[in-house]
Amino acid sequence: MGKQPVKLKAVVYALSPFQQKIMTGLWKDLPEKIHHKVSENWISTILLLAPVIGTYSYAQYYKEQEKLEHRF
């Protein structure tokens, strides 16, 4: 009993460049989805953005004060 090679067929999936309707559901009603997410999670958004914006503002202020201090 010898081993006989078995031919395998490969299946290749590809998107047609002429068919662009694949991801339309992702962009459908995008502003409404964003508004819904923000209105649902506004407290989390504030708690995330407040320290980031505060740190950035402080760094800019400190840099400006340091720059002005060396002026005179």
What does this entry look like structurally?
- By secondary structure, this protein is mainly alpha-helical.
- 60% of the residues lie in helices and 0% in strands.
- The protein contains three helices and no strands.
- The longest helix is centred in the last third of the chain and has 28 residues, at 42-69.
- The model has no long low-confidence stretch (mean pLDDT 85).
- Keywords: Electron transport, Membrane, Mitochondrion, Mitochondrion inner membrane, Respiratory chain, Transmembrane, Transmembrane helix, Transport.
- Belongs to the UQCRQ/QCR8 family.
- This is Cytochrome b-c1 complex subunit 8-like.
Gap from first CA to last CA: 96 Å
The averaged pLDDT comes out at: 85
Rg over CA atoms, rounded to whole Å, is: 29 Å
Q: What percent of residues are in strands?
A: under 5%
**What is the overall number of helices?**
3
Query: So what's the overall shape?
Result: elongated
The tally of strands reads 0
In sequence order, what are the helices and strands, one letter per element? HHH
**Structural class of the helices, strands and pairings?**
mainly alpha
Largest sheet: none
Instruction: Extract low-pLDDT stretches.
Output: none
Helix share, percent:
55-70%
